[in-house]
Description:
3-stranded mixed β-sheet
Amino acid sequence: MLTxxxxxxxxxxxxxxxxxxxxxxxxRIDYAHAFDQLMFPSLETQTRGRDLLAxxxxxxxxxxxxxxxxxxxxxxxxxxxxxxxxxxxxxVRALLATLLLKHGRTVTHEELRWGxxxxxxxxxxxxxxxxxxxxxxxxxxxxxxxxxxAHGYALHTSADDVxxxxxxxxxxRADAARLRGRRPRPASWSPGRWRCxxxxxxxxxxxxxxxxxxxxx
Length: 217
């Protein structure tokens, strides 16, 4: 969390709010105070810090201050940012796709090596190429999205909209609705059917439109 808020995990108590420069300015003091308590040795104080971060008022203010990124991986890969939709170079697009499929978990350097290149097609220094592409991706997405560790990279999207994640959740709900064995209803009212349709909806904007019929002679 410190890395997402400041770009480093090596802050010390008391955390200076100005160091949390990846957060909206109006939230920095609140988060600095919560981090101070989370980093305190006492479990009771850590619990208070956790409660500060989970306070409904802070969550509402955070949502109001943050404009989410919108990742579209069902179909042509693209990302919609508050300032527009950037063009993604092929290597950056491949890296982004690999990270998105991990849903926020760290992708190791070895996984990226095997995911980005076929055997025999690797560059001379795969790790250096990944580092370069990751730098470009971080610059495109802005602060707080891509984190680096000794093991690899992670893309944090919990506050963003990712169509793959949304589709997975809708499919899960549709399966759960079927398993509950509800009394049959008309197709138009079936929860399972509705959720299946909703799960397919992200694909609709990617489908090719049929050609228009020829004009009458």
